[in-house]
Amino acid sequence: MNTEEMLRLKGTHLAPYIQLATTLIGKVREGGGNMFRHQLDTMATLIDYGYIDPVLLKASVVHDVIEDIPDFNHNLLLSIDYESPAVYDLVLEVTRFPEETKAEFLTRILENGSRNAKVLKVADRISNMISLGFVVNTEFISRYTEETVRYIFPIAKGVDKSMFAELQSLVESRRKYISALS
Fold first, then answer.
1. Which of 52, 110, 120, 172 has its CA 20 to 30 A from that of 152?
2. Helix 54-62 vs helix 115-131: crossing angle, to nearest 10
3. Residues 154 and 167: beta-carbon distance below 8 Å
4. Per the confidence metrics, is the pTM higher than 0.85?
5. How many CB atoms lie within 10 A of CB 143?
6. Which long-range contacts (CB under 8 A, 24 or more apart) does 159-166 make?
């Protein structure tokens, strides 16, 4: 990280967003762990790939709260800091709403999502694909892997070739795992 990037992040306060994300601690994931840790994994993936945009990082920490917390009070998110409205808007872009099918949701991001929404969705999927290594439901792994190829690969190709390469590797490893069980 260069000096300019460090200065840009110097005033970024993630703690209130992390605290808000703790509401996800009780939400269990199929591969184990909880949704709170997934939020932090997603942020770590973004940082690993050099993303330092404060709105993107803040949104990554709370990207599942609206979708996964029934009756979430959006005012809690909107009142954190001056960037909260932009964070909220980004979270809404990557939130699947009850009336949407998974295909509609992912197509919406592919066709209409902002660059940050696409980058966040790819980082989210990388975290999810890594977690598949702990899942034993082969039908779920197969379905999720093929969904990644169909919907997330095109998003990743358009925003970050390195993240796309990691997704390809993760898909290949999940396919080998399924094949080995057959």
1. 52
2. 40
3. no
4. yes
5. 12
6. 159/115, 159/118, 159/119, 159/122, 160/49, 160/119, 160/122, 162/49, 163/49, 163/119, 163/122, 163/123, 163/126, 164/122, 166/126
Residue type, 27: K
- Rounded CA gap, 149 and 157, in Å? 11
Longest Cα pair distance anywhere in the chain, in angstroms? 53
Q: What is the DSSP letter of 37?
A: H
Taking residues 83-97, report their average pLDDT: 97
Buried-exposed string 81-116: b where 16+ CB fall within 10 A, e elsewhere = eebbebbbebbebbbbeeeeeeeebbbbbbeebeeb
Residue 9 reports pLDDT greater than 70: no
Q: Are 94 and 117 in contact (CB under 8 A)?
A: yes
Query: Token pair 């949407």 is at which residue?
Result: 100
Tell me the C-alpha distance between 17 and 39, whole Å. 10
Decide: 42 and 120 in contact? Cβ < 8 Å. Answer: yes
Distance of alpha carbon 107 from alpha carbon 30, whole angstroms? 24
